[in-house]
């Protein structure tokens, strides 16, 4: 017998019934939370993943009975607010996920709770601001504005003010904005001949993401150079908005739908024309691969996009299997400490980034497979900054071992968080795409 009552089926996620009015019924939500929390209390396998589970177990253990019945339901929100929807509990730890009849999907239960909270007007101005990545990025990256924004984000006096008034922790290093937006400066090469492999499309469309567009466009340019070096024709997605992941983490599911309505039509057109669609941010890739298909399970355009959406290293590794990837690496990378972010791990594609980095001659890759603790906007917030650094401490320590030449993560904000947690180090922070560009000897 297996933990799923003899079933040999793989774990699966069920569609999110978010358009059903009962989804937002608070008493029914609390009843489901009580059911799932009681199962978690009897298991406790996820205690070391984040602070949501320790908070739940502390509430139970500190109660008068030592059971869930002694915990006031109003305190359930303390658990909800500590969940940042990394999905690691559901994907790697929980023995009761579907097809098990207990049907435990802790992250999607927390998503439902966040949606109920949002519908009741419980979302703060700070959280709305942090989740509006596209709107903030467009404003902050205006040439006249960008220098002032970057200066303000570094000034101790203004950071203390942001901490007290907005709840953005004064010690959190924030990403700089760049006025040279990726979509304005990118020059994709579409002139190469299309060479389809057995497993991979021979042409690529890049969905740039808010972060690459406004914060680190260099990562996007590195991806373009790698694809051009491999003679793969490339185009940019004709138009795009935020993928919706920040709004999903907020529980603003109507906003997710509105963003889906903007993004899916041009993406679906590309998918049906035979393009592989790449994003350099794992959370964005995951949004199109998993979350939108679960929110809109009957939408054929969403399904087409999900099938075409690939992580860059997933795509490059598939090209290598087809014998179509150039391996003329000219420069070794030395010792690389590489962190796999949660939203890449839960895509279940294996360690494709590591596999490609290890193809570079005279390069040793040390893999760190733990949550970094930043987790989207969660680690920026004043009330969770200390927890984010505590969660990341084992990662900081492991990344610093073996005196690496580079520290790297597919998630750029996780990489920045790890660099901050490591403190003084001679290692250079670089995105894995940047490392491959360096290894190819490209300028």
UniProtKB/TrEMBL annotation:
<keyword id="KW-0677">Repeat</keyword>
<keyword id="KW-0411">Iron-sulfur</keyword>
<keyword id="KW-0004">4Fe-4S</keyword>
<keyword id="KW-0408">Iron</keyword>
<protein>
    <submittedName>
        <fullName>Fe-S oxidoreductase</fullName>
    </submittedName>
</protein>
<dbReference type="GO" id="GO:0046872">
    <property type="term" value="F:metal ion binding"/>
</dbReference>
<dbReference type="InterPro" id="IPR004017">
    <property type="entry name" value="Cys_rich_dom"/>
</dbReference>
<feature type="domain" description="Cysteine-rich">
    <location>
        <begin position="204"/>
        <end position="287"/>
    </location>
</feature>
<dbReference type="Pfam" id="PF02754">
    <property type="entry name" value="CCG"/>
</dbReference>
<dbReference type="GO" id="GO:0016491">
    <property type="term" value="F:oxidoreductase activity"/>
</dbReference>
<keyword id="KW-0479">Metal-binding</keyword>
<feature type="domain" description="Cysteine-rich">
    <location>
        <begin position="336"/>
        <end position="412"/>
    </location>
</feature>
<dbReference type="GO" id="GO:0051539">
    <property type="term" value="F:4 iron, 4 sulfur cluster binding"/>
</dbReference>
């Amino acid at each position: 017998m297996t933990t799923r009552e003899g079933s040999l089926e793989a774990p699966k996620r069920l569609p999110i019934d978010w358009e059903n009015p009962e989804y937002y019924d608070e008493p029914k939500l609390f009843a489901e939370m009580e059911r799932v929390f009681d199962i978690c209390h009897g298991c406790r396998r996820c205690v070391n993943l984040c602070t949501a589970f320790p908070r739940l177990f502390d509430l139970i253990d500190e109660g008068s009975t030592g059971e869930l019945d002694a915990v006031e339901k109003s305190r359930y929100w303390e658990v909800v607010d500590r969940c940042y929807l990394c999905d690691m509990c559901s994907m790697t730890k929980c023995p009761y996920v579907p097809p098990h009849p207990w049907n435990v999907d802790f992250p999607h239960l927390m998503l439902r709770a966040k949606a109920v909270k949002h519908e009741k007007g419980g979302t703060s101005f700070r959280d709305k601001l942090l989740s509006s990545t596209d709107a903030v990025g467009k404003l902050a990256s205006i040439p006249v504005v960008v220098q002032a924004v970057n200066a303000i984000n570094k000034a101790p006096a203004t950071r203390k003010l942001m901490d007290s008034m907005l709840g953005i922790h004064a010690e959190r290093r924030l990403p700089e904005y760049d006025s040279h937006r990726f979509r304005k400066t990118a020059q994709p090469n579409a002139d190469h001949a299309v060479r389809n492999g057995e497993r991979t499309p021979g042409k690529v469309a890049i969905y740039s993401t808010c972060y690459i567009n406004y914060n680190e466009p260099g990562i996007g340019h590195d991806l373009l150079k790698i694809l051009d070096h491999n003679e793969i024709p490339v185009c940019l997605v004709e138009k795009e908005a935020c993928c919706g992941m920040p709004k999903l983490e907020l529980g603003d599911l109507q906003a997710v739908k509105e963003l889906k309505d903007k993004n899916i039509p041009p993406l679906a057109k590309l998918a049906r024309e035979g393009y592989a669609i790449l994003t350099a941010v794992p959370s964005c890739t995951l949004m199109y691969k998993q979350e939108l298909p679960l929110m809109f399970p009957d939408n054929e355009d969403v399904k087409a996009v999900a099938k075409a959406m690939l992580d860059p290293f997933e795509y490059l590794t598939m090209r290598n299997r087809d014998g179509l990837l150039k391996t003329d690496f000219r420069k070794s990378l030395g010792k690389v400490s590489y962190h796999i972010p949660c939203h890449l791990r839960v895509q279940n594609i294996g360690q494709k980034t590591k596999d490609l980095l290890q193809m570079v001659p005279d390069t040793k890759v040390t893999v760190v497979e733990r949550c970094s603790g930043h987790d989207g906007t969660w680690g920026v917030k004043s009330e969770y900054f200390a927890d984010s650094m505590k969660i990341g401490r084992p990662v900081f320590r492991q990344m610093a071992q073996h005196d690496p030449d580079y520290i790297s993560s597919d998630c750029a904000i996780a990489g920045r968080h790890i660099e901050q947690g490591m403190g003084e180090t001679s290692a250079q922070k670089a995105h894995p795409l940047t490392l491959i560009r360096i290894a190819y000897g490209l300028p």
